[in-house]
Task: inverse folding
């Protein structure tokens, strides 16, 4: 992936002491890691296409570059962070903040870190911030990603609209009912 990384605005050290989760800004040294995280989220889909490894790599690097550029065009107040678990890179989280909302633009974890409560913990941190600042938390999830949608629904998100490929979801400030610590 060539080109600029998402700009980090309002970056602060975020820490979850219980699970030893921290965030740090994405830097140039993370380029290969960001590709690996992105590749892991698309592996099942690409396997069905029958492409060789070189074709897959070319396609995924192009897609990742285009996606990151589109985030810069469509979202303001972007924060692009590496998720650290026990000081080891585990994933990536991209958020956008405005006066009205905190948008979870993307959260991706390497397969070995999924289902360990990391995503749930980070969402709870966003909820606490949203509650303090009276903002809504919004996201979109691919319709094919049933596992993520179930997590978001358990965490109190509701579907507000949909298009051909995604559900738009939100969680209003102070809305904690039904929230379970799974994830």
Result:
């Amino acid at each position: 992936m060539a080109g600029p990384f998402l700009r980090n605005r309002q970056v602060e050290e975020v820490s979850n002491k219980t699970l030893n989760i921290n965030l740090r800004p994405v830097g140039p040294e993370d380029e290969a890691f960001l590709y690996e995280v992105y590749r892991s989220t698309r592996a099942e889909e690409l396997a069905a296409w029958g492409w060789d490894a070189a074709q897959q790599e070319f396609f995924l690097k192009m897609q990742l570059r285009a996606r990151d550029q589109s985030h810069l065009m469509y979202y303001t107040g972007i924060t692009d962070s590496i998720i650290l678990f026990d000081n080891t890179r585990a994933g990536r989280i991209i958020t956008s903040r405005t006066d009205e909302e905190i948008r979870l633009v993307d959260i991706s974890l390497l397969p070995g870190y999924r289902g360990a409560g990391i995503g749930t913990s980070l969402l709870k941190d966003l909820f606490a911030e949203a509650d303090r600042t009276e903002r809504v938390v919004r996201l979109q999830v691919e319709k094919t990603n049933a596992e993520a949608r179930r997590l978001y629904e358990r965490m109190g998100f509701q579907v507000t609209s949909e298009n051909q490929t995604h559900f738009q979801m939100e969680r209003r400030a102070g809305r904690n009912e039904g929230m379970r610590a799974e994830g």
Q: What stands out?
A: The chain has one domain: 15-171. Residues 53-74 form the longest helix (22 residues). The domain at 15-171 is CATH 3.40.630.30 (Aminopeptidase).
